Amino acid sequence: MHGRGAANRWQSLRLLRARLGLSQGELKAAVLRWPQLLGFAYSDMAPSLARVQEKYRGLEGLASTGTCLL
Asked: Domain span at residue 48?
């Protein structure tokens, strides 16, 4: 990746990593598994991430109660 587009992609990956609390290795594994992540802008992903995180935030307590989600 070169130029301004590359800088924006790296910034998007840094923001994604911070948002999800990923280690460098976890981010690398995600990019290797889903290389299309390199083409996304964080600003485009952020609203969807927020919705998913909000949805599953309410489910965190279920694991401690023994409730099966499957």
From this structure: 3-56
Domain count, the chain: 1
Helix (H) or strand (E) holding 35: none
Residue 66 belongs to some domain of the structure: no
3-state secondary structure of 38: helix
* Distance (Å, whole) CA 19 – CA 47: 12
Residue 20 and residue 26: Cα distance in Å, rounded?
10
pLDDT per position in the chain (70 positions), as tens? 556 777 888 899 999 999 989 999 999 999 999 999 888 899 998 999 889 888 887 666 555 555 444 4
